Amino acid sequence: MNMGAVGHMKRIKDAAKVARHVMENTKHTLLVGDGATQFAIQMGFKETDLSTNYSLTLWNQWKTNCQPNFWNNVRPNPEKYCGPYKPNPSSKSKPTSNFVDMKNHDTIGIVAIDHNGNIAAGTSTNGAKFKIPG
């Protein structure tokens, strides 16, 4: 089975196309971070600013109160404060809620089968908005 993937690639718009180059032009299956970005540039992809006025507005609104966020069992209370956070000294965990829904997540998946039965699949995601980096 052939596969190629990229992760945490910055300033490159066409991640799925770069992933195909990983599959077709390397012996690797995954390139991540600055290495993935540099690989994309080497393969002829152009760096571009991926921010839009809308995304910058959302980011600035979120920075005002940091809600929703993905911190749990930390202090100060992540439902009221923006951090920095430290682990709670208590060993008891509070139940968590899932902030990921159709409005703050943008994953797509595609699967195709040709007339010979060959299968191709792809996915692209930025993950949940305002998640903890990493």
Automatic annotation (TrEMBL):
A GO MF label: N4-(beta-N-acetylglucosaminyl)-L-asparaginase activity
Protein known as: N(4)-(Beta-N-acetylglucosaminyl)-L-asparaginase
Cellular compartments per GO CC: lysosome
Residue spans crossing the bilayer: none
Record site: Cleavage: 106-107
Residues at the catalytic site: 107
Source organism of this protein record: Sipha flava
Pfam families per the UniProt record, alphabetical: Asparaginase_2
UniProt superkingdom: Eukaryota
InterPro entries: Ntn_hydrolases_N, Peptidase_T2
Protein family per UniProt: Belongs to the Ntn-hydrolase family.
